Input
Amino acid sequence: MLLKELREKVIEIALKAQKERLIPLTMGNFSARDRRTGYICITPSGMEYDKLTAEDIVILDIEGNILDGERKPSIEQPLHCAVYRRRKDVFGISHTHSVFATAWAACNESIPVVVAELAALIGGPVECAIYKPMGSLELAETAAIRLRDRHAILLANHGVLAVGHDIDSAFANSVVVEEGAKIAFYARQIGVMRLIPEEECRSLRKISLEKYGQKNDIL
Ligand SMILES: [Zn+2]
Output
């Protein structure tokens, strides 16, 4: 089977996201890009994650053409492909509807940098791309452009998209965004949020890229 291991990895991450309560039911979608072929393994549309097998994962080229798999790919495949086309450094994408991040997206408001992890791992505030219908080409282009060199973006009135140098780091970034969204929400109830200044954000990002974690373990 084509890219069996990567297909299984995509299922593993989808199940982890469900366990972390980042996605209700069959919502959200996940993909990984193979470094050798450039092919994209993506979750199928509307199937329960705990029933997925490697055969259910669909293989696409970067334009979204189906290369292998019997299932219909995720409705957000244009969004995944648009991000992969613009970002040569991205090899994994995790799209979730996690509650706190989506609440900020419901207000069309960016998640401010209230904790160091957002600066270090996402690259700054989690900005919010303007509303476009789910699954549309407009959503794909708008969000991919607004993402710039960051590692996550909110989709207005919809959810959050996190990317990474592999699907593990994309998933980890989904968790970081949700935690940041939660802390920012509570901080706002307590009082006036004190944001990490832009210059400090850049320095934290640099530290994370150069020094954080074990060898090749940078998120
Ligand atoms: Zn969605």
The pocket of zinc ion is lined by residues 27, 95, 97, 134, 158-159 (CB under 6 Å). The chain has a mean pLDDT of 94. Residues 167-190 form the longest helix (24 residues).
